[in-house]
Each structure stands twice: as structure tokens, then as C-alpha cells.
């Protein structure tokens, strides 16, 4: 079994109101020195069997077609170590 992580973030040119809200709240909570915040999503997929290049390509397709909106979001896929 393998664990594959898909991180989805808004493209840099897309406004991120949730990130701006967090950035604005930080100084009020006593946290200084954070110049920018971007909000995103993380998906962890557990893959049965061996993680082949074909299976990894399928995860990329899943990320593009289901987990992200390619018009406004970018995604990264990476293999994570399975704990335990």
C-alpha cells in the first residue's frame, strides 16, 4: 500500500479572501512577521498494491478532473511514507 498526497492551491493570480482574512487576524492575535497567507486543500489517497507509474498517472488524472479546478487552482502530487 502507498499513500499519495495531492496538495491543491489557488493559482497565484487568483485572489484568496480566506488567506487574506487569516493574514489580517494574525497581528490581532499577537503574531507578527507573516507577510502573506494562502489557503489550500490537502488530499491523502491510499493506493492498494504497488504504486506503478500507471497508478501515479491515474492519481494525476484524479487530481486534475476531480480534486482541483484547473482554471483557478494548481496541484502537486507526491508520494508520502506510510506510517506504521
UniProtKB/TrEMBL annotation:
Family: Belongs to the PurS family.
GO molecular function, one term: ATP binding
Keywords (A to Z) from UniProt: ATP-binding, Cytoplasm, Ligase, Nucleotide-binding, Purine biosynthesis
Keyword Ligase: yes
Reactions catalysed according to its record: N(2)-formyl-N(1)-(5-phospho-beta-D-ribosyl)glycinamide + L-glutamine + ATP + H2O = 2-formamido-N(1)-(5-O-phospho-beta-D-ribosyl)acetamidine + L-glutamate + ADP + phosphate + H(+)
Job of this protein: Part of the phosphoribosylformylglycinamidine synthase complex involved in the purines biosynthetic pathway. Catalyzes the ATP-dependent conversion of formylglycinamide ribonucleotide (FGAR) and glutamine to yield formylglycinamidine ribonucleotide (FGAM) and glutamate. The FGAM synthase complex is composed of three subunits. PurQ produces an ammonia molecule by converting glutamine to glutamate. PurL transfers the ammonia molecule to FGAR to form FGAM in an ATP-dependent manner.
Entry superkingdom: Bacteria
EC class: ligase
GO CC list: cytoplasm
Upper taxonomic lineage: Bacteria, Bacillati, Actinomycetota, Actinomycetes, Propionibacteriales
Organism: Nocardioides mesophilus
Database matches in Pfam families: PurS
Record-linked InterPro entries: PurS, PurS-like_sf
Enzyme Commission code: 6.3.5.3
Protein name, entry field: Phosphoribosylformylglycinamidine synthase subunit PurS
Pathway: Purine metabolism; IMP biosynthesis via de novo pathway; 5-amino-1-(5-phospho-D-ribosyl)imidazole from N(2)-formyl-N(1)-(5-phospho-D-ribosyl)glycinamide: step 1/2
GO biological process: 'de novo' IMP biosynthetic process
Subcellular location: Cytoplasm
Amino acid at each position: 500500500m502507498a499513500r499519495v498526497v495531492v496538495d491543491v492551491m489557488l493559482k497565484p493570480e487568483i485572489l484568496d479572501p480566506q488567506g487574506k482574512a487569516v493574514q489580517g487576524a494574525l497581528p490581532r492575535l499577537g503574531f507578527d512577521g507573516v507577510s502573506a497567507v494562502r489557503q489550500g486543500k490537502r488530499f491523502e489517497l491510499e493506493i492498494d498494491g504497488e504504486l506503478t507509474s500507471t497508478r501515479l498517472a491515474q492519481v494525476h488524472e484524479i487530481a486534475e478532473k476531480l480534486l482541483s479546478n484547473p482554471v483557478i487552482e494548481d496541484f502537486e502530487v507526491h508520494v508520502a511514507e506510510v506510517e506504521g
